[in-house]
Write a structure and sequence with these properties.
The structure is a homodimer. The termini of chain A are far apart. Chain A has a two-stranded antiparallel ribbon with strand order 1-2. By secondary structure, chain A is mostly helical. Helices cover 62% and strands 3% of the residues of chain A. Chain A has a domain of 73 residues: Multidrug-efflux Transporter Regulator, Chain: A, Domain 2, CATH 1.10.1660.10. In chain A, α1 crosses α3. At the A-B interface, α3, α4, α5 and α6 of A face α3, α4, α5 and α6 of B. Chain B binds a DNA duplex through α2.
DNA sequence: TTTAAAGCTTCCCATTGTGGGAAGGTCAAG
DNA sequence: CTTGACCTTCCCACAATGGGAAGCTTTAAA
């Protein structure tokens, strides 16, 4: 292996340090979210700690439910010196909206199901208000 | 076209009556959720009103967030004369659990984001607590 | 009757984000 | 030098839906 300067590492180590699987790191690279890293002579990807930081950033953004497309933009803003925090805030607010909407949808489903289940005896007999409702109208 | 008895229809009409797209009807058939229908001599699928009812059933179950796998079981239970309503109720309760869990996850995301956004000025300056948080640690 | 539009068929591809696995090259330790 | 762990690329899968192409059938109008 080619000796590289400083604290560089291969994909497995970067994965361990960042908490992002090697599979995903390659995927992020393939969709252009992550820059193509240098390679050793034998073709192994080489990463530095800055890459690990970026991967952690991505991971955190994922944990907040941001889409890949949004994360691509966020990484760009993060790196940008001339960014305006208003842009980031706008993305965050818009994402909160999406989350709230999704929550409402799921709540509606849950509420509807709760109503149905409390009317269902849930015994050995075939009669079932849940199925009746699904089949109704 | 072969004259078929009674009120039979082709896939387009079944789609319109059930509210399930023709694309999806074929898909449901391909994954075994829906029985393979009879065909005309020229290969067109033939449906009856009972199929439309089943499709509506599926559509309603989807609207409640049930997975295809669950719906397959629900349709089976619906058709079964010997079903026990307890089985249906158990599926419903389990699904409610999943929904509630998902809701909690989304709520956590939303709450976390709300906290971050209210600390972000959102102006023309680059300083941004949201990005800082994503990059932290 | 002929023709054009609308509808049907199958097959393939894309989405989102993640994982599994195969086939084959590389590196490190015994 | 072998073995095992690691890397590479490439393909497939999930769930549910939609888009579209190529080609055949039915229907409605001219």
């Amino acid at each position: 292996m080619v000796r590289t300067m400083g604290d560089t590492m291969n994909i497995g180590r970067a994965a361990k340090l960042s908490g992002v699987s090697a599979k995903m790191i390659r995927h992020y690279e393939s969709i252009g979210l992550f820059p193509k890293p240098l390679r050793t002579n034998s073709g192994y990807r080489i990463y530095a700690m800055t890459d690990v930081h970026t991967l952690k950033f991505v991971k955190r953004a994922r944990a907040l439910g941001f889409s890949m497309a949004d994360i691509k933009k966020l990484v760009g803003l993060w790196r940008s010196k001339t960014r305006e925090s208003a842009q980031v805030k706008a993305m965050a607010l818009s994402h909160i909206q999406e989350l709230e909407q999704k929550i409402q949808e799921l709540k509606s489903m849950s509420e509807a199901l709760k109503k149905l289940t409390c009317h269902c005896h849930g015994d050995e007999r075939p009669n079932c208000p849940i199925l009746d409702d699904l089949a109704s109208e």
